[in-house]
Amino acid sequence: MFDIDIISLSIAVILIAAFILPLYLHISKAKKRETRATKLLEDFAKSQGLEIQVKDLWRSRYFVGLDRNKAKLLYSDDIALSSPVLIDLYTISRVKIGEVSHKVVNQVESRKVIDRLDLILLDKNGDTANVLEFYDGNRFSDLNGETILIKKWETYLEDITRKILKDQLVL
Question: pTM of the predicted model, to two decimals?
Fold first, then answer.
């Protein structure tokens, strides 16, 4: 049929390995970092007596988790560098999405470019209690599902704050 040159085959295998090895190492390092961060967050939640039922971790940086039974929210905008923030949802009356954007206009079309997405938690007086960053255009060049994620968390938190308010009115 055809002859395989051992030297050429060896060089091809070495080049393929040289190409794949950095990718493998990068993915392995990212998984270890994510596992370590998740462990730290779980330990923090346990130390606070929380059981996180719903959680999201994105961009290997941001984390948000919710203990529905105790109405506590756990949030971190950088799991590697900062400790998480614990928010008591009994102090929150409303939740809204804060979006900062600008328009890019050219001769053919105009489009909206999102610069920042925040989930804003308002206290009983209507003042801003917490601002949870979900996306910052200065750090990242593109959105990676943050618009869907922030709407999901807005819905979760609205449901809980509505339930809390309803329970407080009954009492």
Answer: 0.79
